[in-house]
Amino acid sequence: MRNVTLALAVLLVSLGLTGAASAAGKAYINGIDANYPPFAYVDKTGKPAGFDVDSMDWIAKKMGFTVTHKPMDWDGIIPSLLAKKIDMVCSGMSISPERKEKVAFSNPYYTVKKVLLVGAKSKLTKEQILTGGKKLGVQRGTNEAEWLAKNRDVSKWNYELRYYDSAPMAVEDLVNGRIDAAGVDSAPAEDAIHKAKKPVKIVGEFAEQDQFGVAVRKDDKELLEAVNKGYELLKKDPYWETLKAKHLAGGK
After folding, report:
1. CB neighbour list of residue 175: distance below 8 Å, 6 or more residues apart
2. How far lies 230's CA from each of 22, 26, 61, 189, 215, in Å?
3. I want to staple 67 with a disulfide (CB 3.0 to 4.6 A). Which of 16, 51, 60, 203 is the partner?
4. CA distance 81 to 193
5. Of 125, 177, 130, whose CA–CA distance to 149 is shortest?
6. What SS3 string covers the chain?
7. Which residues contact 164 (CB under 8 A, 6 or more apart)?
8. Residue 214 and residue 236: Cα distance in Å, rounded?
């Protein structure tokens, strides 16, 4: 028995899986935004779905732990993580210096742009949106909301920010004429254009590109290592391309 245990330990060290293996057999809760397609959302049957949900399900199976996905309000998701109500946030969360002060992030797994959406028939330009006193919708608690609020004052731009619980809700108000434009990540923007068939279009980018990562508590090094190793394996597996084709380039 000692020889078998020693052999297993040597194998784990050689594969770099010692910390990741210690996460095996454990059960974790992933907090997700309930309305952030295509990365995370609740489908018509009430089941969590999306690119991040499917990715983490695969990683959990590969790394030997179990995961359940808990939809919750985005602006309270990091406090919930710190309060140990959830164990991770794999739900299109942008890595930022402010968030890194509170939580630890996995290696980046996706890069996203910040874009301005208008109605398909709108003649508004990016400059007119930023300087013309327009109503600009954005999801509260996001990097784009923080950037738009901060830079409006710094650059002396002129727009009225309207805050929403989700990016799709902002897009819905845009379609219905309640706001003039929406500042969103490129992922939900493209989802609105190509999947939901919303009559909207992109007229420009703002801010720098963001990278998505999985957030965990700083002291949860075992889970962080398991997630990083899991993504490393996933990106080498054909399922990664299947996931991208399913969620990022085509219908739900």
Report:
1. 119, 198, 199, 200
2. 13, 15, 9, 28, 14
3. 60
4. 32
5. 130
6. CHHHHHHHHHHHHHHCCHHHHCCCCCEEEEEEECEECCCEEECCCCCEECHHHHHHHHHHHHHCCEEEEEEECHHHHHHHHHCCCCCEECCCCECCHHHHCCCEECCCCEEECEEEEEECCCCCCHHHHHHCCEEEEEECCCHHHHHHHHHHHHCCCCEEEEEECCHHHHHHHHHCCCCCEEEEEHHHHHHHHHHCCCCEEEEEECCCCEEECCEECCCCHHHHHHHHHHHHHHHHCHHHHHHHHHHCCCCC
7. 137, 138, 139, 140, 170, 173
8. 18
Question: What residue type is 50 in one-letter code?
Answer: G
Identify any residues that bridge with 40 across adjacent strands, giving them in sequence order.
36
Question: Which residue carries 């009559």 as its tokens?
Answer: 199
Can you tell me the distance from the alpha carbon of 202 to that of 13, in angstroms, rounded to the nearest whole number?
A: 48
181 close to 158: Cβ distance less than 8 angstroms = no
> To which residue do tokens 């939809």 refer?
71
pLDDT tens for 20-71 read 668 889 999 999 999 999 999 999 999 999 999 999 999 999 999 999 999 9
